[in-house]
Amino acid sequence: MYALSSVPIAALPCSRLLQPPLKPSACFQTFFNRRHLITTLLSVFTPSFIDFTLPCSSDLVAEARGLFQMPPVRLVNRYFLVRAGESEFDSFGIINTNPVAKTSVDSGLSEEGKKQTVKAAFKLKEMGACENGCWIWPSITQRAYQAAEIIASVNGVNRSYIVPEYSFLDARGLGAYEGKRLDSMSEVYASDTISSIFKPPPTDDGTPNESVSDVFVRVTQLMSILETQYSGDTIIIVSPDSDNLTVLQAGLIGLDLRRHHDLSFAPGEVRFVDIRSIPSYKQPPSAVYKCLNPPNCN
């Protein structure tokens, strides 16, 4: 047996490790040259299937689908946006956005809301949303999750394809407007048209007070997850309120976020993510609404 040199392999320059073995001199023909031995060991213990070359930077960028930006150059999935039907609180004409109550029975669908959601489910079936399978992503808010179950039932979707979203699809938090009449929402939307960073007045009951830009961040995070997790799939996004969907749609098609409310969703309304899916009476003048770097639309 012959001992190897005490010089560690890692300390040897690559040129020495990769250099072909020298022909042994005549006086040592019966022994391995140390360099020959090291080279032989490397060839034996390095699996041939391992490729140590790194992809070029352009390849890495091309594969980085998680870096989602609005408006997107393209979408790898197709999307349907659904607002859940009327909730019990809606039927009372009361604003309810506190996430603490989002799983309560009072946040569930009213009788009218159930009818609206059934119509939405059949509308999706008519549009062929789930003909080749689909994923349903509802807010964990009671009315949105109930709507997802109805949609799944009508469209023959297994419940395992319902994926509850725990925070990114919460109803927009309206702060001090919590508990007020629904018609006071007009004040919020009037402020939205002035600035996308306007926040409703805060409150001390735990209800967040979110600006349009805050909602934009949430729905962009959601889209980043969906565009990374799936490819070539159909996804139905079910929101408990309109603002999540109007801000999302405005971002996706490059419209000014300050005018998001002009794209408002009625309870139970369904839209395919396409500029042509915006009702004609809500079509915005492009010169006023174009926004290529949301939420900076000034």
TrEMBL record:
It comes from the Eukaryota. This is Phosphoglycerate mutase.
